[in-house]
């Protein structure tokens, strides 16, 4: 797709095909109204969880995925990481209820162009979508752009970036534990054994210094894996 370097829509170009994922139907409806009102943006598919978003991206071939961070089954960040692996040309942008600097860094590491708080989506989401399609990182106005610059400079120079406290697989298990699934249900959803689920849970308790399932759930809420 031809991009307009001025930041606005490019007359005559095909609309940007958008996949929208959020587990709240009212939020999806509102975001869709914002995006579909622009001549250069078109929502072509909707999902209410990260796993379905990944599946729909394969069938609808969107140009851009707008993903809520906190969703069932698979978070937006997990979906963004999977999409970066299977569809590297797809641009992604995160939506969140939370104004959290760490989410922005996690979004960049997941391959996303940045994130937009839902509280300012009506003001900034369209600009964020266009920035993402131009290959530019987006952080909503008001936050220090030096954070982006420093992060990208470290990434491009090969300097180590902050480690994630848990692995991607552990994060998948953690999210499902916090959602109340049993070890057997988690094993079935992730196509692993119950023993492997229990090992991942034990590893997380040890690494994070936590005691039980309740502590894991609280940690999942603090890190945005599930909503309180």
Automatic annotation (TrEMBL):
Q: Which SUPFAM superfamilies match?
A: C-terminal effector domain of the bipartite response regulators, CheY-like
User: For the Response regulatory domain, which residue ranges apply?
Assistant: 17-133
User: What positions does the domain HTH luxR-type occupy?
Assistant: 159-224
Supply the SMART domains for this chain. HTH_LUXR, REC
GO MF annotation, one: DNA binding
Task: Supply the alphabetized keyword list.
Answer: DNA-binding, Phosphoprotein, Transcription, Transcription regulation
Which GO annotations describe the biological process of this protein? phosphorelay signal transduction system; regulation of DNA-templated transcription
- PANTHER family per UniProt: TRANSCRIPTIONAL REGULATORY PROTEIN NARL-RELATED, TWO-COMPONENT RESPONSE REGULATOR
What name does this protein carry?
A: DNA-binding response regulator, NarL/FixJ family, contains REC and HTH domains
Q: Which organism is it from?
A: Streptomyces indicus
């Amino acid at each position: 797709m031809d991009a307009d370097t001025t930041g606005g829509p490019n007359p005559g170009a095909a609309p940007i095909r958008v996949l929208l994922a959020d587990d709240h139907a009212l939020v999806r409806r509102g975001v869709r109204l914002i995006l579909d009102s622009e001549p250069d943006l078109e929502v072509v598919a909707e999902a209410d969880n990260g796993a379905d978003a990944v599946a729909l991206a394969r069938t609808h071939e969107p140009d851009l995925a707008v993903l809520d961070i906190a969703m069932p089954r698979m978070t937006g960040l997990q979906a963004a990481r999977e999409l970066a692996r299977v569809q590297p040309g797809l641009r992604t942008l995160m939506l969140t209820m939370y104004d959290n600097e760490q989410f922005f860094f996690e979004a960049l590491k997941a391959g996303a162009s940045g994130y937009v708080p839902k509280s300012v989506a009506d003001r900034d989401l369209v600009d964020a979508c266009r920035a993402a399609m131009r290959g530019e990182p987006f952080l909503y106005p008001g936050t220090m752009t030096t954070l982006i610059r420093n992060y990208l400079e470290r990434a491009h120079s090969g300097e180590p970036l902050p480690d994630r406290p848990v692995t991607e697989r552990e994060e998948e298990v953690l999210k499902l534990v916090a959602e109340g699934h049993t070890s057997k249900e988690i094993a079935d959803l992730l196509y692993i054994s119950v023993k492997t689920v229990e090992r991942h849970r034990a590893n997380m308790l040890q690494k994070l210094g936590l005691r039980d399932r309740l502590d894991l759930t609280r940690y999942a809420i603090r890190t945005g894996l599930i909503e309180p």
